[in-house]
Amino acid sequence: MIIDAWAQHPTPRHLNHPMFESLRRWTRGQSHALEEVNGAYPVSATLAALDEGGVHRALICAWVGPQGPLISNDEVAAFVEASKGRLVGVGSVNIAKPREAVRELRRCVRELGFKAVRVLPWLWELPPTHPRFYPVYSECCELGVPFCTQVGHTGPLMPSEVGRPIPYIDQVALDFPELVIVGGHIGYPWTEEMIAVATKHPNVYIDTSAYTVSRYPANLVAFLRGHGRGKVLFGSNWPMIPPARALEGLADLGLDDAARAAFLAGNARRVFRLD
Known about the structure:
Layout: E1 3-7, H1 12-15, H2 21-27, H3 43-52, E2 57-61, E3 63-65, E4 68-71, H4 73-82, E5 87-91, H5 98-110, E6 116-118, H6 121-124, H7 134-143, E7 147-150, H8 165-175, E8 181-184, H9 191-200, E9 204-207, H10 218-225, E10 232-233, H11 243-246, H12 257-271
Parallel strand pairs: 1-2, 2-5, 5-6, 6-7, 7-8, 8-9, 9-10
Antiparallel strand pairs: 3-4
Helix pairs in contact: 5-7, 8-9
């Protein structure tokens, strides 16, 4: 079994946003989904991409930023419903309105059945230690759901500094030891920091979204093979990278059967409490 820990089912307003021009430039010709942005993209196309990569389930996230939702929570819920169990919802919230954010997070989990929330610091141009994040962290602890975020530099045309694992993710994990944190996009160019933070804190994890297997840094591969085998989740960042392409060369990682099973599905099932 393979579970993709970070994917999106695209909407035109998400993919057409000017900040993604750099990603369109880098991935041109690699993902046909990025070219079909003038109308609604069918859920069947995302499911076909999962099938091509041998992926059984994917966690798809909403995108909420200062200018409003690029992919709304209700749209994600509709995509999940249409997928007949293949897609799993991850919500997002407006951290500029803390009480509203907490209420929306509760709705996502209790009414929509979502398994996590994702907020991107670079989208808000605020570090994860900013007070606006803290009500969301507290409510994640109360609801028992992970907080997902991006670590490392930003591919979109936005500042990257807020993606530093140290001091930001380290400090959040110290302030909220019960909070499960999943840092997507491996933390590059600060992957060593992300590995250190994931090693230090029992509830901090890494997902490999936005990177193909051939681009995993050597220190991450060593972590996967060794003491970090329970700490790393496979992710693609579909539609930016198709799952099949993200997984090319998997055998070259040299993972034993237990490490491979944990990386591809076992860790995600445990972290997100999937059935």
